[in-house]
Amino acid sequence: MEPDHDELMSPQEQGNKPYSRRVQAAALAAFLAASFLVAGLGGFSTVSNVDGWYATADKAPWSPPNWLFGPVWTVLYTAMAVAAWLVWRKRTDRTRPALAAYGIQLVLNLAWTPVFFGLYPVLGTAALWVALAIILALIAAVTVTVLYFGPISRTAGLLLLPYIAWLVFASSLNWWAAVHN
């Protein structure tokens, strides 16, 4: 089966005609794969450490049970991917910078977990302070991403708001851990 002729043309050559369903489905799958790759890579740092040093760490009194983090992050990573996909579909002159901001926040997201969980056994409390700096930068980056996404796709911008809320909450947990461990 040969690709549609329109799928081989750039958006400018197509006159910004909508992408075919097949291309849209492939793009959504790619955005989901990128999000869950970040999740999976972060999982390598948490698996041994959640039952290791973190199990005995002094945690904030408002810390949720460990089992809650997986489902929450699954929803957030899915929402992030869908938001990026919605922006990608629009193909405006603002799409590229918006997706660049999305990429930056994804990299910061990827950096936080190994620093917080993986470096603590090596660096001690210093790792938790570095992780706090990363999560604060991540909050700023996601906020910028929302500001880029919103004018392109209101739904995409709204999909990232729970992510910001969770990051603010997570930063409070990170701060407590840095102060008390």
TrEMBL record:
Membrane-spanning residues: 25-47, 67-87, 99-120, 126-149, 156-177
One example of a Gene Ontology biological process annotation: tetrapyrrole metabolic process
GO cellular component: membrane
Subcellular location: Membrane
Superkingdom as given in the UniProt entry: Bacteria
Pfam families according to UniProt: TspO_MBR
Native species: Pseudarthrobacter phenanthrenivorans
Transmembrane recorded as keyword: yes
Membrane-related topology note: Multi-pass membrane protein
Keywords of the record: Membrane, Transmembrane, Transmembrane helix
Family designation: Belongs to the TspO/BZRP family.
Protein name per Swiss-Prot or TrEMBL: Tryptophan-rich sensory protein
